[in-house]
Design the sequence.
């Protein structure tokens, strides 16, 4: 069962930043410029990190953070000026 993760990054190089954003957008909902809400189970998150997202980065210059959001955090989230926290659909069409 998917968990909700908050993924954010700070990438120095424009080309790396654009590539990473496009990869993350394939599986996650952008909520701010470099912040995403991602409904992924642990296995899928690890796959995305190890096989896709981290390969784009230069870790001496860039950083990527992944925070777990449990149901309590999601329910207590207060959003001003945009959509509420991402709610994954009951189904996904690929």
Sequence:
């Amino acid at each position: 069962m998917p968990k909700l993760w908050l993924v954010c990054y700070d990438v120095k190089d424009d080309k790396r930043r654009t590539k990473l954003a496009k990869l993350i957008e394939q599986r996650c909902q952008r909520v701010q410029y470099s912040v995403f809400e991602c409904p992924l189970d642990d296995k899928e998150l690890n796959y995305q990190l190890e096989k896709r997202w981290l390969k784009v980065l230069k870790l001496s210059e860039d950083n990527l953070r992944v925070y777990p959001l449990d149901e309590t955090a999601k329910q207590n989230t207060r959003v001003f000026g945009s959509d509420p926290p991402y709610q994954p659909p009951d189904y996904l069409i690929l």
